[in-house]
């Protein structure tokens, strides 16, 4: 297997240290990629010989984004609903039914094609690892199609049958379906189970029932909680040891304390908060209390129609009070924790000798530029498991200039 030396790295963010407080930056660095893995990291002046060399010429290199909350399997869009929201209407869970109807009408091939297009869009902005969910089928056949489509496109798949009780079915009957035959059908294709714990979707007891059924089927647990109002979602997630509780906009002190004393990651979704005009989650207080956080795009047609992790990172810095390093950590290593991929041979979100070579090159000398130059497409190349891709915007670009 050939070894590729990447040199000329002005700033290498490894995320190999155990927290975002530790210094994980190497200046004037180099690394070697071999067999999809990082084979060497160190000062450029000490780099070993390799079969080929790419000189990134004073740019910053960091792990690829780990986007752990997306809903890419859907058809149609909800631009009209978005416009109404921007004119003052409040977001409500019921909009999910609009996407459900379009998704049920689409073929599996079309669902795969559109999810793939969104994944490519994410990759062109530096994402190298991505989770996605079912949740717009909401009957057995459509959730199964969605689970298979998701498994074709994403690295991690979550079953979200408990997204909304679809029109035309009794609530109890739907819960029995989600926790019984639907779960059994999708289980071979998914890794996690999730539920939308919110007024208008499912209450705490219903979510507990869904998650426990998923656990009994061998799935990991995650939860949508405290998005539109205060409630018991976060505490349920902590009680059940969920890998992640996502949204977290409306938190009481007790929720922050519960998260801080737990291994559950609070996954924050700033693009969604802008698009729904919800208050941002108390990111600073969460971090200061000792909670773990992640940042994700929440790409979906209802509340957050963007695949851009750089946009989320910039927003977290500019509007949520995170430092650049905290935001970058939350979108890489913190996110890896939210899907149980922080440690071990399949770890993502960090650059370590022996680990996966999933990385991105910015057209900037440091990660600070992600927030300093918001909205500018800075990602000029990614390597995913050692394989290089050039984002379409920069396809003709030579990294050495
Ligand atoms: O994460 N909150 C629940 N689910 C999605 C939005 C679903 C929709 O409105 O289509 C979210 O924001």
TrEMBL record:
Keywords: Cytoplasm, Histidine metabolism, Hydrolase, Iron, Metal-binding, Zinc. It catalyses: 4-imidazolone-5-propanoate + H2O = N-formimidoyl-L-glutamate. GO terms for molecular function: imidazolonepropionase activity; iron ion binding; zinc ion binding. Pfam families: Amidohydro_3 (PF07969). It is found in: Cytoplasm. Zn(2+) binds at residues 69, 71, 224, 298. Coiled coil: none annotated. Binds 1 zinc or iron ion per subunit. Residues 193-365 form the Amidohydrolase domain. One of its GO terms (biological process) is L-histidine catabolic process to glutamate and formamide. Its EC number is 3.5.2.7. GO terms for cellular component: cytoplasm. 4-imidazolone-5-propanoate binds at residues 78, 136, 163, 227, 303. Its cofactor is Zn(2+); Fe(3+). N-formimidoyl-L-glutamate binds at residues 136, 300, 302. Fe(3+) binds at residues 69, 71, 224, 298. Pathway: Amino-acid degradation; L-histidine degradation into L-glutamate; N-formimidoyl-L-glutamate from L-histidine: step 3/3. Belongs to the metallo-dependent hydrolases superfamily. HutI family. HAMAP family: HutI. Catalyzes the hydrolytic cleavage of the carbon-nitrogen bond in imidazolone-5-propanoate to yield N-formimidoyl-L-glutamate. It is the third step in the universal histidine degradation pathway. This is Imidazolonepropionase.
């Amino acid at each position: 297997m050939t070894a590729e030396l990447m040199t000329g790295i002005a700033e290498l963010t490894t995320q190999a240290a155990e927290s975002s407080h530790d210094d994980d930056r190497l200046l004037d660095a180099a690394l070697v990629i071999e067999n999809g893995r990082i084979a060497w990291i160190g000062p450029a002046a000490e780099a070993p010989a390799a079969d080929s060399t790419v000189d990134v010429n004073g740019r910053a290199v960091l792990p690829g984004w780990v986007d752990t909350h997306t809903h890419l399997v859907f058809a149609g869009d909800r631009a009209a609903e978005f416009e109404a929201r921007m004119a003052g209407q409040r977001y409500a869970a019921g909009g999910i039914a609009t996407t459900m109807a379009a998704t049920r009408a689409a073929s599996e091939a079309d669902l795969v094609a559109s999810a793939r297009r969104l994944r490519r869009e994410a990759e062109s902005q530096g994402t190298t690892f991505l989770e996605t969910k079912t949740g717009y089928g909401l009957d057995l056949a459509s959730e199964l199609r969605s689970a298979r489509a998701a498994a074709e496109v994403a690295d991690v798949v979550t079953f979200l049958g408990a997204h909304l009780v679809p029109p035309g079915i009794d609530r109890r009957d739907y819960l029995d379906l989600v926790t019984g035959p639907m779960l059994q059908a999708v289980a071979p294709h998914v890794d996690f189970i999730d539920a939308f714990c919110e007024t208008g979707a499912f209450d705490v007891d219903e979510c507990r029932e869904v998650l426990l059924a998923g656990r009994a089927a061998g799935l990991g647990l995650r939860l949508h909680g405290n998005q539109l109002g205060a409630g018991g979602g976060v505490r349920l997630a902590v009680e059940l040891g969920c890998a992640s509780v996502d949204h977290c906009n409306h938190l009481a002190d007790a929720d922050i304390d519960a998260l801080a004393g737990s291994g559950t990651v609070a996954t924050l979704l700033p693009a969604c908060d802008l698009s729904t005009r919800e208050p941002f989650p108390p990111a600073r207080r969460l971090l200061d209390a000792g909670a773990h956080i992640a940042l994700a795009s929440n790409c979906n047609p209802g509340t957050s129609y963007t695949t851009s992790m750089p946009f989320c990172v910039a927003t977290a810095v500019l509007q949520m009070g995170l430092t650049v390093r905290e935001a970058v950590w939350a979108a890489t290593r913190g996110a890896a924790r939210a899907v149980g991929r922080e440690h071990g041979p399949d770890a993502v979100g960090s650059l370590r000798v022996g680990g996966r070579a999933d990385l991105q090159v910015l057209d900037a000398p440091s990660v600070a530029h992600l927030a300093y130059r918001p909205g500018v497409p800075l990602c000029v190349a990614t390597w995913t498991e050692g394989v290089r891709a050039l984002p379409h915007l920069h396809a003709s670009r030579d990294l050495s200039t």
